[in-house]
Amino acid sequence: MAQLNEIHNEFIRQEIEENIERPNERQRLIDNFAKSRPSMQAIAAALIEGEHATVDQLTRAALDEGIEALEVMDDGLIAGMAVVGIKFRENIIFVPEVLACARAMKAGMTHIEPILSASGIDPLGKVVMGTVKGDLHDIGKNLCIMMLRGAGFEVIDLGVDTSPDRFIDAVEEHRATLLGMSALLTTTMPNMGKTIEAFIDADLRDQVKIMVGGAPVTQDFADDMGADGYGKDALACVTLAKHLLAVK
């Protein structure tokens, strides 16, 4: 079990000390950062601060030095976004800051994704994601998509205001085995249930696992509507996706 003072980067140490309160999350982050290179910690720190140009520069430099793309993604980009996700969940940062961090993540992944594609690494699974019909909010969904892609999933993003038929068409077209739905408005939450009913009516329910999330969504609501799982934030989304698809 690593200690906080084993982390090389002072900014990362301060972020964990001041903002990460849950013991299991705190220890997991400490363990991950303590074993990572200083250059990976620097990438994570720049991402947490939303410095997209710095993330771009540091990612390119790390790859030019011969560091594996997967290491840069896992120990730099995803590690940084894990801190961002927790801070967003705990209302320490808000939408503008998350957008800046997402832009930084995208800057780094621009260099990583072509390398992973060229390497022929198979994705962990195909996931269709969308905000339900009548809902135009997508910050949380986009953060989940970013984390899923970083974790190795292929994600088809349907955007916002997604009808049940569009979800069904996308699952069939891409032969996806996992569907993620989000909602921010209590008035649009019932459309999650309507989408699940549409999959039942189309005899497709057994072919896809369905996970749901969003600020007003709860585990009880997910259970009542017949979803396979509920994730409270982007970190939980990745964990849930791996669990539902039996990915180690």
Annotation keywords:
globular, 2 domains, alpha/beta, 9% strand, 11 helices, Rossmann fold, 5 strands, Methyltransferase, Methionine Synthase (B12-binding Domains), Chain A, domain 1, 5-stranded parallel β-sheet, 248 residues
Describe the structure.
This protein folds into two domains: about 120 residues, Methionine synthase domain (Methyltransferase, Methionine Synthase (B12-binding Domains), Chain A, domain 1), CATH 1.10.1240; about 120 residues, 3-Layer(aba) Sandwich (Rossmann fold). Helix content is about 60%, strand content about 10%. The protein has eleven helices and five strands; from the N terminus they run H-H-H-H-H-H-E-H-E-H-E-H-E-H-E-H. The longest helix is centred in the middle third of the chain and has 25 residues. The two termini are about 20 Å apart. By secondary structure, the protein is an alpha/beta fold. Helix 4 packs parallel to helix 6. It has a five-stranded parallel β-sheet, sandwiched between helices.
Multimer state: single chain
The strand line-up of the biggest sheet is 2-1-3-4-5
Distance between the termini: 22 Å
CATH topology annotation of the largest domain? Rossmann fold
Radius of gyration: 18 Å
Number of strands: 5
What order do the SSEs take from the amino end to the carboxyl end, as H and E? HHHHHHEHEHEHEHEH
Q: How many domain regions?
A: 2
Shape: globular
Specify the biggest β-sheet: 5 strands, parallel
Average pLDDT number: 94
* Count of helical regions: 11
CATH superfamily of the largest domain: Cobalamin-binding domain
Structural class: alpha/beta
Q: Indicate the low-confidence ranges by residue numbers.
A: none
What is the CATH architecture annotation of the largest domain? 3-Layer(aba) Sandwich
Strand percentage, roughly? Answer: 5-15%
Percent helix, as a range, is: 55-70%
Q: What is the CATH class of the largest domain?
A: Alpha Beta
